[in-house]
Amino acid sequence: SLGGKAGDFTEDQLFGVGAGYHNGSLSLGLVYEKAKDPNYSVFGTNPNANSSTSTSALNMSSPVYSGFASAGAWQVIAAGAAYRIGNATIGGTYSNVAFQNLGSEAGAGLNPGHLTGTASFNIGELNFAYLVTPALQLGVAYTYTRGDSVGSISGATYNQVNLGANYFLSKRTDLYVVGIYEHASGEDSTGKQAVAAIANL
Predict the structure, then answer these.
(1) Which DSSP letter does residue 39 get?
(2) How many CB atoms lie within 10 A of CB 78?
(3) Which one in 56, 83, 168, 200 has a CA-CA gap of 20 to 30 Å to 12?
(4) Does residue 9 contact residue 2 with C-beta atoms inside 8 Å?
(5) Could you tell me the sign of the dihedral formed by the alpha carbons of 47, 49, 53, 57, in that order?
(6) pLDDT for residue 147
């Protein structure tokens, strides 16, 4: 995506590349994504903001990363693997998410902590799913997220457990229920005591 500003096709640009491999019971995946001006190019669809404010104001709602809205770039490197044994599938993912060049973006309230440098998150997940019947699947996952310290912010740790059930009505229609527990500790991106912040259910 080349961005949307006339005369500067690099502003707000985003690109990504991914690869996948599948052989028998084994599946592997790898992805790299880079975005300029992530507050606008990635998070700039704030449903609570009109079009005139979403291009100049804070578009990040989660305290996990909203303090890093002044980043000039956003980079994601992620890898995952899954292995199927009969009706069971065990998998894992690792990702590194970096908000780079903090302080690069100007705007009201984008850098209240006057941060510079890079803020990174390292995220690991282990998951397990079991097909009880051809129509019913149960799953559990554990995710560990660690935010590195940047400036005066010491960083936060998030431990999360997900439990879910999925019932397939057809190939394209299903019913599901998900329960999530998350525990947070340390300082979030805004410099406050970290609290559970479950997003993208």
Answers:
(1) H
(2) 16
(3) 200
(4) yes
(5) negative
(6) 96
- pLDDT one-digit tens code per residue, 125-180: 999 999 999 999 999 999 999 999 999 999 999 999 999 999 999 989 999 999 99
Exposed/middle/buried for residue 13 (C-beta within 10 Å: 0-12, 13-18, 19+): middle
CB-CB neighbours of 71 under 10 Å? 28
Q: Which two tokens stand for residue 196?
A: 């559970």
Q: Which two tokens stand for residue 128?
A: 């397990």
- The better pLDDT of the pair 7, 74 is held by 74
Return the half-sphere exposure (C-beta side, CA atoms, 13 A cut-off) of residue 124.
4
Residues 59 and 45: beta-carbon distance below 8 Å: yes
Q: Rounded to two decimals, what is the model's pTM?
A: 0.87
CA–CA–CA angle 156, 158, 162 (5° rounding): 170
- Structure token pair of residue 94: 């690792």
Beta strand residue intervals within the chain, DSSP E = 14-23, 26-36, 73-85, 88-102, 117-133, 136-147, 156-168, 174-186
Amino acid identity for residue 189 in this structure: S
- Give 148's strand partners: none
User: What whole-number distance in Å separates Cα of residue 180 and Cα of residue 80?
Assistant: 21
